[in-house]
Amino acid sequence: MSNHASRRRFLAVAGSTTIAALAGCSGGDGGGGSTETESMDGETTESASDPMDGGTTETDSMDEGMESVTVTVRVANVAPTDVYGAETPTGGAVWLTPGVFAVHTGENPVFTPGEPASVGLEALAEAGPPTGFEGETGLLGELRERTGSMGAVAAGAYTPDDTVADPNDPTGEVPGAPPVAPGGAFEFDVEARPGRRLSLASMFVPSNDVFVAPGASGIALWPADGTPVEGDVTAAIDLWDAGTEPNGPPGEGPDQAPAQERPTQGADEDGVVRRLSDVDDGHEYPAASEVVRVTLTPHGAMDDGA
């Protein structure tokens, strides 16, 4: 099977319900987007029109009347095509899976360094699906449940329909292929207001349970005493080990995506989330900046109170 075909069937190993959920996340059936409702006390709450449509779930009661801007977030795979051997399931490349994002005012709600990974993060880090394994709450669902608490004001997923091609794409036909190979990217929009930050997570493939994400503080979207952030924010991104499955050599282990036969295949590690650089597993990994580039592009500001 070609690397192309392997990429296109990658998430199928996680089960048909995950594929259906991702199809809904893409919004390709026109059911995406969000609806805005006003509560009895005048608070404004924005929520996705369908719990699995991948749109952003947002609660804005604390920010009513504040200036805001739309920010386009681009998560690009900038890895070379020969990080690992050509005989590996990815053909030597590193892939990035569809992922989740959260806009927050407090600490990163996706995970806490030094603490065990959630069930949803375990699924994303081991097999890629932001919607989780069959019968379990995925990371997307977990973040939506936290919206309105823990400083989280919005949560969503970037999915196959959010992929964009790069004219220098060495593997071709990136759009529609979960995950994206070198040269491809995900793009999605979030609403930024003063004091808001961004966190996100995608699986690093091939691996047992490695993912890309910012640390505890997330990524500044709009400093409370400044202006909307624009440009490259990759310095905030690291490679993380979920601590849920022992690491094997990348691209060689039978319990790694995309080679594993079942998404839950592999021994339990019962560890905690740590920066990959703090894990002494004897294997070689590229730096996060050699794999992913995250950029922010703010668009025209508007005053919600006008």
From TrEMBL:
Gene3D superfamilies: F-spondin domain. Residues 21-64, 240-306 are annotated as: Disordered. Residues 25-34 have a biased composition (Gly residues). InterPro entries: Spondin_N (IPR009465), Spondin_N_sf (IPR038678), TAT_signal (IPR006311). Residues 271-284 have a biased composition (Basic and acidic residues). This is Spondin domain-containing protein. It comes from Haloplanus rallus.
